[in-house]
Amino acid sequence: MVVHRLAGTKKALEACRLIERLYQAGQRVTVWVADAGRAAVFDRYLWTFAQSSFVPHSLWDGSGEIDEPVAIVTGTLANPNRGEVLVIGDTLADPASARGWAQVHDLAGAAAEDEGKRETWEAAGFTVAEVRGIASDAPG
Asked: Which of 39, 46, 51, 71 has its Cα between 20 and 30 A from that of 24?
């Protein structure tokens, strides 16, 4: 599991860059955010964050499976696209629920809500690598 330490408090652009890199590497990615409003904003941003980017993705409606390589889910953590990689977009209430993925990435900005993320993941039984920013060679 990787905690990406970001210099600022805004995580959306860095999350999009990470998801694009994972998608381009052939990974199937599940992105979790806390609520439908944030998911809709993230969905739009993932289409428009860079002119040259194309990351096929879908908002999951809570039922069935989806074929897109990137799925955005809210509420209860699920894996509707059979993703190998999980990207956490908000603070996950139960980090242990992330155990089904081969790789887990969490972004920690400078906001108070992101303090202690490493310790929270370790307390849930994960081995944590901490990197600055979105490193292209970050371990999973």
From this structure: 39
| Distances from the Cα of 95 to the Cα of 27, 49, 77, 120, angstroms | 21, 28, 10, 8
* Pairing outcome for strands 85-88 and 2-5: unpaired
Q: What is the DSSP string of 66-134?
A: --SSEEEEESS---TT--SEEEE-S--S-GGGGTTSSEEEEEE-SSGGGTTHHHHHHHTT---EEEES-
Q: Which pLDDT belongs to residue 139? A: 46
> Is the pLDDT reported for residue 68 higher than 90?
yes
What per-residue confidence (pLDDT) applies to 113? 86
| CATH 3.40.50.12580 applies to domain 2-129 | no
Question: Containing H/E element for 43?
Answer: helix 36-48
Measured at the CA of 96, the angle between CA 58 and CA 40, to 5 degrees, comes to 25
**Over the stretch 83-109, which tens digit does the pLDDT of each residue have?**
999 999 988 999 999 999 999 999 998
119 CA to centre of own chain: 18
Rounded to an integer, what distance in angstroms lies between the CA atom of residue 81 and that of residue 73? 10
